[in-house]
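quick q for whoever's on today - can somebody do inverse folding on this one?? i tried earlier but teh output was garbage lol. tokens:
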């Protein structure tokens, strides 16, 4: 029903649930505003007999209204499938061209690609710069021969890795292990048969792959089948094969290959079994985070080098952040098991795609910074390159540990009412909603509470009836929990309040680390590197950072993208170069490209993980801002520095 670009427009309007300017949509789709206006007219025509309304207002923008009863069908209609036959966006064309080159038996010409994509030859020439950069990450090269065209120079292993990564990235957020898009890609291959073989083998050897690893292995096997049928053979040296044959996973891989051979009438050699072994050895097991069933001595015997290295790194992080990560056995065990597999994946260039990477960066920014710190240390020790996707999973381990830490620090409260029942149950429900950081440890009648008052252990007593004790602060509250009650409770448990104006004055610590002189609005810079340099120079000018800061921020950006969602980027350096901590902000006149994303607000964190007692709170505050669309809209609306600063409570 809708064209690919129309789906992009509808996804943008529907998912972000806000009014969009025509110019922003044009930039997103890499076309002119006139083209977007034509697309919108076409969409309106297609929705003419529907309850779904696309509304446009001159000078304001465009937005969409989708009734509740129409949402499920509408979401299906605007779903963007992978590998469009006529890709529109530049990044889609790049992937299309790479797949075209990898599937070709010989040379492919620019004219041939331009004709198939309905674009100019000059556009294809520009796309090939990005194609070359993409392939270079895998060690693959482009070979160009005059009057013949271009082809990829890479060994069979590299070709399969690239193909697998493209597919994993494309289908990573799809819920089903095998979806229609995957069936289209592997038309003629019985994916359900491969799936059944993997399930049978799981049951036979009593192990369980996570959905992501299961799909990754399924894709690997499907690619292997297709390449074998096409006559391509993969090779592995004898030394590597000997190492792999000694692994427990080799036995499982051998059973899988035997079943594949019997079902598809082919012959997988030892090298093919070796690569299946690598996948299994680097797989993420569903139960690998059940930390309590592992003894630390067992982990030390399993891999003493990793044990010692990881223990030293976690102790360093504990010292620098103030969190007692070093004594969190669950964290260490889960992290040890994860990194043991992750290091293996990195050594063999197996990428475990993380479909929720952007959400993790946005929701758990502080944990992600810690994960980058840890992975960089391991990269240097093991001479590997842990991927951005992998760091997202590592961040979740630290986020879980932080939540456990917070839970242990919860304020404990006791509820008291005339009978201990009824009204206190209503109050209990309301309190849980209003104060998630308060743990209601008991509900008592006033008579029972008086008898055991000396034995009670709590930080606060909340009572619907008069109750006196000098041991524990008492707050009298209504069973309906009025606004006055909430205010009184907050005062006792010392929880700051959010201001009525929606500023960050009372709730946040972020404003302590901001300076109006380092907030730059309506800047003309339109490249990522130029914005980073501008903010770095401003921080240096006012004595917040020292020489080398700019280069460190660029290095960090090369390591993994600092885009964290909702049009916001959070560039920051590695350790060092900070004299005095500060958060700097820049808002360009026009949105800029930040890797694969569009960015409208740049928040630069000049913070050093080793010295900031408020580091965690700062990132929690930033997360609150980034996840609040209204706050982002207000920040983008203001051109006056005082109005802009007021949002941060400066």
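ok took a stab at it. sequence:
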């Amino acid at each position: 029903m809708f064209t690919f670009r129309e789906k992009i427009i509808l996804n943008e309007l529907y998912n972000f649930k806000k009014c969009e300017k025509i110019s922003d949509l044009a930039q997103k789709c890499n076309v002119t505003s006139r083209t977007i206006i034509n697309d919108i007219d076409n969409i309106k025509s297609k929705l003419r007999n529907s309850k779904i309304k696309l509304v446009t207002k001159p000078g304001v923008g465009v937005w969409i209204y989708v009734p509740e009863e129409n949402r499920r069908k509408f979401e299906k209609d605007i779903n963007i499938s992978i590998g469009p036959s006529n890709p529109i966006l530049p990044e889609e064309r790049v992937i299309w061209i790479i797949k075209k080159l990898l599937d070709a038996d010989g040379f492919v010409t620019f004219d041939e690609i331009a004709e198939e994509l309905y674009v100019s030859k000059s556009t294809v020439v520009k796309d090939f710069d990005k194609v070359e950069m993409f392939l270079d990450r895998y060690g693959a090269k482009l070979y160009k021969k005059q009057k013949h065209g271009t082809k990829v120079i890479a060994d069979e292993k590299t070709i399969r890795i690239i193909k697998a990564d493209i597919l994993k990235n494309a289908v990573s957020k799809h819920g089903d292990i095998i979806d229609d898009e995957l069936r289209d890609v592997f038309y003629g291959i019985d994916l359900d048969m491969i799936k059944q073989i993997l399930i049978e083998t799981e049951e036979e050897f009593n192990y369980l792959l996570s959905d992501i690893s299961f799909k990754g292995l399924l894709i690997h096997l499907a690619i292997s089948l297709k390449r074998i049928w096409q006559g391509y053979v993969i090779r592995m040296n004898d030394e590597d094969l000997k190492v792999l044959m000694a692994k427990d996973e080799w036995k499982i891989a051998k059973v899988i290959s035997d079943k594949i051979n019997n079902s598809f009438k082919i012959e997988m050699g030892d090298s093919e079994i070796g690569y299946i072994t690598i996948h299994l050895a680097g797989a993420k097991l569903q139960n690998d985070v059940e930390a309590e069933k592992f003894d630390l001595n067992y982990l030390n015997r399993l891999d003493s080098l990793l044990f010692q290295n990881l223990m030293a790194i976690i102790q360093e992080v504990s010292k620098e952040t103030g969190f007692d990560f070093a004594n969190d056995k669950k964290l260490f065990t889960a992290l040890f098991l994860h990194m043991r597999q992750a290091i293996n994946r990195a050594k063999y260039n197996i990428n475990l795609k993380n479909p929720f990477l952007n959400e993790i960066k946005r929701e758990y920014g502080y944990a992600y910074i810690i994960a980058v710190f840890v992975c960089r240390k391991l990269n240097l020790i093991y001479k590997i390159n842990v991927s951005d996707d992998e760091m997202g999973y590592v961040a979740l381990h630290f986020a879980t540990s932080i939540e456990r830490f917070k839970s242990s620090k919860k304020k404990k409260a006791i509820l008291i009412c005339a009978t201990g029942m009824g009204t206190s149950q209503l109050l209990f429900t309301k309190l849980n909603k209003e104060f998630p950081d308060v743990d209601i440890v008991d509900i008592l009648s006033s008579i029972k509470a008086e008898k055991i008052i000396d034995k009670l252990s709590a930080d606060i007593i909340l009572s619907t009836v008069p109750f006196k004790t000098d041991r524990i602060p008492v707050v009298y509250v209504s069973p309906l929990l009025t606004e006055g009650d909430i205010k009184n409770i907050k005062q006792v448990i010392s929880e700051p309040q959010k201001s009525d104006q929606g500023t960050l004055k009372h709730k946040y610590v972020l404003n302590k680390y901001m300076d109006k002189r380092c907030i730059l609005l309506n800047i003309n810079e339109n490249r990522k590197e130029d914005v980073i340099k501008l903010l770095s120079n401003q921080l240096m000018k006012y004595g917040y950072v020292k020489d080398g800061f700019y280069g460190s921020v660029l290095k960090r950006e090369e390591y993994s993208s600092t885009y964290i969602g909702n049009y916001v980027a959070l560039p920051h350096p590695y350790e060092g170069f900070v004299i005095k901590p500060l958060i700097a902000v820049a808002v360009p006149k026009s949105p800029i490209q930040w890797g694969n994303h569009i960015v409208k607000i740049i928040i630069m964190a000049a913070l050093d993980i080793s010295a900031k007692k408020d580091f965690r709170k700062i990132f929690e505050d930033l997360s609150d801002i980034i996840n609040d669309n209204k706050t982002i809209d207000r920040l983008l609306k203001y051109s006056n520095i005082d109005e802009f600063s007021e949002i941060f409570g400066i």
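fwiw Residues 286-292, 495-502 have pLDDT under 50 and may be disordered. also The chain has six domains: 4-76, 90-153, 159-281, 291-407, 410-493, 510-647. so keep that in mind when u check it
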